[in-house]
Amino acid sequence: MIQFDDVSKRYPSGQEALSHIDFELGRGELAFLTGHSGAGKSTLLKLIMLMELPSSGQVIVNGHNLAKVARKALPFYRRNIGLVFQDHQLLFDRTVYDNVALPLQIAGLDSRDIARRVRAALDKVGLLSKEHQNPVALSSGEQQRVGIARAVVNKPPLLLADEPTGNLDPELAAEIMNLFEQFNSVGVSVLIASHDLSLITRLKHRMLVLEHGRMRADARQG
Amino acid sequence: MARSTKSRSENRKAARTPDTGSFRTGFEQHQWVAVDSLFRLLAEPVGSALTWAVIGIALALPLSLLLLLQNLQQVDRGLDQSGSISLFMEQALTSEQLQEALRTVQGDADIAEVQLITPDEALQEFQAASELGEVLEGLDENPLPAVIVVTPVPSSNRDLEGLQARLQALAGVELAQLDLQWVQRLNAIIAVATRVALLLGVMLGLGVILVIGNTVRLAIENRRAEIVVVKLVGGTDAYVSRPFIYTGLWYGIGGGLIAVLLVTLALFLLQGPVSALMQTYNSEFRLAGLGISNSFAVIAVAAVLGLLGARISVLRHLRAIEPR
After folding, report:
1. The model's pTM
2. CB distance from B22 to chain A under 8 Å?
């Protein structure tokens, strides 16, 4: 699903965020990407989202060589990836329902299909009863679940998460991770960047450890 | 043969079904975005009204000028049609000589109508119309000459001047006066003023584009966070720019409406004084308004200006907002 071949990323400032990264995430696999802050986790996710281009090396995602994705094709490439943010990035000028519906509206589905799929996604994260509320009225755990519903509503084959539990207490964090495991169990490939070591070591999944931009360890647990 | 036709029509049907579906949802989406953009403007009534007013005033200025000139041309055209030639006859003429001259003039193929005003009639008319009549009564003899008013067959200016020269050469004619020069001068002035109004219109139109462009830029800034999210979940440039294009359209349409209202109001306020003025010329002239079709044309032009302004702003500012 994701393949990095000798990928380096140097920012114009001269800072080397990633150097010579090689790894592969198989279809239907779940892995954690960890390391202390500044180790390059966010940069790696940005390369996958095509928010940044590598300075050297090759990234292949779901069969697409990212160096060859044209600007016009970029939105369509991104529709195949669900992205969960640390700060959830919900829009507070609309309801929970409309937030989750956004990727489907963008994809141009008709309103009946949208309704069906939004409700299914909200049901999956346990927030169906709050569809008409403004996300501002929700707790941070609930907001993050809305963010997850939005990421999975158009059934992307790949789900990325950038510190999805960063702002949550341990109990809520475990619930969120459990949600990711559920999506993985139905075949979605999942890559979660997190520095919450105590939580992710307990979950016994594959762990990619970054340190100063290098891949320090690729540990399969359990 | 029949089979191949059938399969082709089936193919076409199969190809068309998803198309009409996406067309419908595309239309639905446009409709939704258009309404949403309008509601966003109405949600900030003061700011939006100010922008609409600025656009409306900028458009109303050249518009009312053009309308005024058009009305002036209307008056002018009325004068043009009555472009007659007055033949002031020599004082010493006997009535036989006068009749002789009248017959000659009536025989001219370029002349449609001839009216004789004898010195006595002229005197009566003058006394009726002017307070100077009493002064004339004090004179021993009538100082006014006989006048033959000639209405030419409708023709171009050049022919009229030729006719004037011919009439001037007639025996017994003191002066053949063609009252056309000031009409020509007025026409020239109107032409200059129309050009000025058009130039003003172009400049203010550009101003409107810039105003709308800048307002749309602010709207883009206000929704920056949303744009980033939309781009990350796969929104195309067209999708991201659509609400702002509609915002520009609504600014244009609203501004155009206000311009039409302002011009109509100004005309209404001018109607009374203008009627009073025209009555002194025995004219039933009334100011012509914009009319329905021109009003729609103004609103359409304003809408196009809005679209242009939004388009420029979107091209300049929206691409710069990328998820980082």
Report:
1. 0.73
2. yes
